[in-house]
Amino acid sequence: MAPKGKAGTKGKKQIFEENRETLRFYLRIMLGASAIYAVVNLVIFYSAASAWTWVAFVFSLVVYGTSYRSMNSMAKPSFTDDGSLADGGIDLNMEQGMAEHLKDVILLTAIVQVLSCFSLYVWYFWLLAPGRALYLLWVNILGPWFTAESSPAAQEPNEKKQRRQERRQMKRF
Predict the structure, then answer these.
(1) pTM for this structure?
(2) Distance (Å, rounded) from C-alpha 77 to C-alpha 74?
């Protein structure tokens, strides 16, 4: 059963602490996945490593770097002159925020990177990220924009039709 009343809000200090923990957690994921990939593909199977192995490794490092840097700048706290916390930054753990999508990209890249130790074809699963981005673009921006009514003048005939239908229904009863 859902709790009654207003949902609790987080304080600046709590957001600051949770953001720090979230950034640590995702840094560990990135370092762990990269270490596994490097050890397996670039150390153990160095003789079988192709240029695509290196390209995939550099690609994952670029994705990790940009995602982590974006999350870090979003969570950047601000302090007052006396050193007390003025703002904890944007909450990285809030739902439906940009940070949620960045965390999804980091997790997808880490999963694909580790699984690609078995086959480089696993990198095709990374195409899920731009596919999801296109889906969100369509659902949230393009779809409503294309299907929106063009002008208020177009609504008048609809209102007239609605009145006619109401009158017809009144006559039937």
Answers:
(1) 0.73
(2) 9
